[in-house]
Each structure stands twice: as structure tokens, then as C-alpha cells.
Design goal:
Blueprint (H helix, E strand, L loop, with lengths): L1 E3 L14 E3 L4 E5 L6 E2 L4 E2 L3 H17 L8 E8 L5 H12 L5 E6 L9 E10 L1
Parallel strand pairs: 6-7
Antiparallel strand pairs: 1-2, 3-8, 4-5, 6-8
């Protein structure tokens, strides 16, 4: 993937990039939003860190069904019930994605399903 980075637009204020151009022919893979439900129990895990980590475990599981990993994610949409959690979530997000920096939007919403604190929607790129 080719990362877009220009001084003519604001720099990222978190672990994401300004844009991505896939470097190989392929198709986008759209995932539904994931909240921190543990598939073994069917229950929402407790706490922001636990929910954030579970969200990404769930995303990894869905991506794996088509042979993809988090490194194939080109876009993430992070919904938070409290924008005050932005900095903390950025830390977990940076750790989970490592050096890979997908494009991203993050914003606060009034509420999420099941009382979740975070929901994440991603788009990945599947090379042909």
C-alpha cells in the first residue's frame, strides 16, 4: 500500500495516515461495526481497554475468514461514547496496529449497542 502524506494538509493527530492508495489490484472488504462482545460468552467485556482489545480481536477473526489481517486494513471508523477516551484509545490502537497506519475517522456518538463504549468499522483491501 502506498501511504499518502503531504505538508499541504494537516498532519495526523494520532496513529493514522492522511490517505492510502492500494499498490495492487484487488477488492475492498467491508466489515460491519464491531463492539467488545466476547464470542465465547456472547457478553460485552467490561472496561474501555478490554472492549477496545476485544473489538480488534473480533475484527481480526472476521478478516481471517478471507485470509486478511490488520495489515490489510485501509480505513477504520472509531466511534466512542465519550470523546474524552480518544487519547487512551489512540494508545491501544497504536499498539494493536503497530507500524501500520490505516486512514481513520474518530468521533463521539450518543450511545452504542449494548452499552458499548467503543465500536470500530473497518475496510480492508484484498489483493487479487
Amino acid at each position: 500500500m502506498n501511504v499518502l502524506n503531504t505538508a499541504n494538509a494537516p498532519a495526523a493527530v494520532g496513529p493514522y495516515c492522511q490517505g492510502i492508495v492500494p499498490s495492487a489490484p484487488g477488492v475492498p472488504v467491508f466489515l460491519s461495526g464491531q463492539v467488545g462482545i466476547d464470542p465465547a460468552t456472547g457478553a460485552l467485556v467490561e472496561g474501555l481497554e478490554a472492549q477496545t482489545r476485544q473489538v480488534f480481536k473480533n475484527i481480526e477473526a472476521v478478516l481471517a475468514e478471507t485470509g486478511l489481517t490488520l495489515k490489510d486494513v485501509t480505513y477504520a471508523n472509531v466511534l466512542l461514547t465519550d470523546i474524552g477516551d480518544f487519547k487512551e484509545v489512540n494508545g491501544y490502537y497504536a499498539e494493536i496496529f503497530g507500524e501500520h497506519r490505516p486512514t481513520r475517522a474518530a468521533y463521539a456518538v450518543n450511545a452504542l449497542p449494548l452499552g458499548a463504549l467503543i465500536e470500530v468499522v473497518v475496510i480492508a483491501w484484498k489483493p487479487l
